[in-house]
Amino acid sequence: MTRPGTRAHDFHAPDDADLDVIAVDESTKDVFAPTEYPDGLTSTIPPMTNLVTAPVLVVNGSLDRLSCGPGYTVCANAETLYVTEAPFFGPAARLRTFVLAGSGHEVNLARNTAEYQAAVVEWAESIRE
């Protein structure tokens, strides 16, 4: 769980989310899922993502303080995110990436989330077999 009052800074880009949305996010926050731990918080074991055999779409906000590194360089655009993430996935994952401009970590709560949602729909349609 996050400390009270820190979600706006940690999960939302400045001026990106409605203050009422941030308040609801703060009041309904939860701990992270145990399945996030092996890849997200450790570097001592091989990434579990190397075992993924289904298509993958990795999404970040361009101003994601948690995932994009100093200066947000990892999330400058979909290509830089791809270069960073590709070593963690095999060919079977058919990795694709998307960066939501101006968003923080909470892309679903961003003002421009419709762009992200459209990208997910387009990706889902593209992987149909």
Task: Describe the protein.
This protein is α+β, with helices and mostly antiparallel strands. Helix content is 31%, strand content 8%. It is built from five helices and two strands, in the order H-H-H-E-H-E-H. It has a two-stranded parallel ribbon with strand order 1-2. Helix 4 links the parallel strand 1 and strand 2. The protein is globular and about 40 Å long. It starts with 6 loop residues before the first helix and ends with a helix. The model has no long low-confidence stretch (mean pLDDT 81).
Question: What layout of secondary structure does this protein have?
Answer:
Blueprint: H1 7-11, H2 19-27, H3 37-40, E1 57-61, H4 78-85, E2 96-100, H5 113-126
Parallel strand pairs: 1-2
Which tags fit this structure?
alpha+beta, 129 residues, 5 helices, single chain, two-stranded parallel sheet, 2 strands
